[in-house]
C-alpha cells in the first residue's frame, strides 16, 4: 500500500470517531427544557420542549410535575393528545386573584399522541408564580414514555454542581425580581410585569428637585381579562404614604385629589398613569428620588392580588403633575 493509502487508513477511523463524538455532543445537549427559563412572580406560561424520543422510538405520553410555587395551573389543549390532570394539596396556602387556595393541579399528562424521534414538540400550561423569591429555582420534572422505555428529565443539581453535567436534568425556571424575567436580558425595572389578567408596563418615578415635598410615579395598566379589577392600595418603603391622585381643571384651576375608592381597571381596557393626569403620589419621602436610583412599590389589586415593582427614577423635566410644585 502506498503512502497515500496508509494516510487514508489512519485518518478514516479518526474521522469516524470525531463524527461519533460530534453526534454524542449534540445528543447530550438535546435536553428537555422550558422555552422561557427566567420569570418574575405573577402569571407565567410554561412551554415544555421535548427534543426527541426514546432511543429512536416515538414518544406517546408526556408527564409534567408541577413544582411548589406554581399555582392555578391549566394545561393548553393539544390536537391529537388527551390531557389528564392530577390534583393535590399545596405545601402552604396562597393568594390567587384575591382568593385563598390550598390545592390545585400538581401533575399534567398528555397521552395518545405520537412524537417521532426525529422531531421535537411543545407542551404548554399556564399558571401563577406565587410565594417565590428572586434567585430561587423551580424544577419542572418531566417524563416522556415510548413503546419500550422512557426518558425521565428529573435530575436536580446539588449545591455548586453545574446543571449541564447532568445526563437527564429537570427543566429549570429561575425566579427573577419583579420587573425582570426576560430571558437573555437583565432585570429592567420598567419591563412589563403580568399579574393575573393584568399587565403593568412603562413604570417609572420622577426625580425630585431639592426641597420638593413629594414624588410622582407613572405606569400603564392593561386588563386583558373579561372582568374589571381595581387597584385598592399602594405602599412603598421609600415613602411614609403613597396614594393614587387625579388632576383636573375646575373653574380654570388645576385641582388634584386622591382617587376615592381606588382605581378601576375596566375589562379589556388600558389605564395610563402619566404626568398631568392620573399618577402615583409619594409623600413623607425619607430621601428624595434621584435620577438613576429606583423606588420599590407594592400594589394590591382587588382580584389579581399583590405585585412588587421597582420603578426606575428618571429625569425631572417635563410633565405637569403637582409633585414638582
Automatic annotation (TrEMBL):
Keywords: Signal. It comes from the Bacteria. InterPro entries: LpqE-like (IPR007410), Lxx211020-like (IPR058248), PCuAC_sf (IPR036182), UCP037139 (IPR021174), YcnI-copper_dom (IPR012533), YcnI-like_sf (IPR038507). SUPFAM superfamilies: DR1885-like metal-binding protein. Residues 1-30 form the signal peptide. Residues 31-175 form the YncI copper-binding domain. Gene3D superfamilies: PCu(A)C copper chaperone, Uncharacterised protein YcnI-like PF07987, DUF1775. This is YncI copper-binding domain-containing protein. It comes from Mesorhizobium alhagi CCNWXJ12-2.
Amino acid at each position: 500500500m502506498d503512502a497515500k493509502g496508509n494516510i487514508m487508513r489512519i485518518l478514516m477511523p479518526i474521522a469516524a470517531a470525531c463524527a461519533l463524538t460530534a453526534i454524542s455532543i449534540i445528543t447530550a445537549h438535546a435536553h428537555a427544557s422550558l422555552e422561557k427559563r427566567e420569570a418574575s412572580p405573577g402569571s407565567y406560561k410554561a412551554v415544555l420542549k421535548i427534543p426527541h424520543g426514546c432511543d429512536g422510538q416515538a414518544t406517546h405520553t408526556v408527564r409534567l410535575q408541577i413544582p411548589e410555587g406554581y399555582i392555578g395551573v391549566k394545561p393548553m389543549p393539544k390536537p391529537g393528545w388527551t390531557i389528564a390532570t392530577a390534583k393535590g394539596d399545596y405545601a402552604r396556602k396562597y393568594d390567587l386573584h384575591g382568593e385563598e387556595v390550598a390545592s390545585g393541579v400538581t401533575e399534567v399528562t398528555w397521552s395518545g399522541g405520537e412524537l417521532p424521534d426525529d422531531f421535537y414538540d411543545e407542551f404548554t400550561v399556564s399558571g401563577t408564580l406565587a410565594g417565590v423569591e428572586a434567585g430561587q429555582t423551580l424544577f419542572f420534572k418531566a417524563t416522556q414514555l415510548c413503546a419500550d422505555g422512557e426518558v425521565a428529565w428529573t435530575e436536580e443539581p446539588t449545591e455548586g454542581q453545574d446543571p449541564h453535567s447532568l445526563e437527564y436534568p429537570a427543566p429549570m425556571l429561575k425566579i427573577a425580581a419583579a420587573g425582570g424575567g426576560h430571558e437573555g436580558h437583565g432585570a429592567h425595572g420598567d419591563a412589563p410585569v403580568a399579574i393575573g389578567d393584568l399587565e403593568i408596563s412603562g413604570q417609572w418615578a420622577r426625580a425630585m428637585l431639592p426641597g420638593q415635598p413629594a414624588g410622582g410615579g407613572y405606569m400603564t395598566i392593561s386588563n386583558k381579562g373579561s372582568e374589571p379589577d381595581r387597584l385598592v392600595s399602594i405602599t412603598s418603603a421609600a415613602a411614609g404614604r403613597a396614594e393614587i391622585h387625579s388632576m383636573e381643571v375646575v373653574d380654570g384651576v388645576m385641582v388634584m385629589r386622591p382617587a376615592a375608592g381606588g382605581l378601576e381597571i375596566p375589562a379589556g381596557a388600558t389605564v395610563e398613569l402619566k404626568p398631568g393626569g392620573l399618577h402615583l403620589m409619594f409623600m413623607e419621602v425619607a430621601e428624595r428620588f434621584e435620577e438613576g436610583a429606583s423606588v420599590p412599590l407594592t400594589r394590591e389589586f382587588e382580584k389579581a392580588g399583590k405585585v412588587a415593582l421597582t420603578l426606575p427614577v428618571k429625569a425631572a423635566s417635563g410633565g405637569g403633575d403637582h409633585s414638582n410644585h
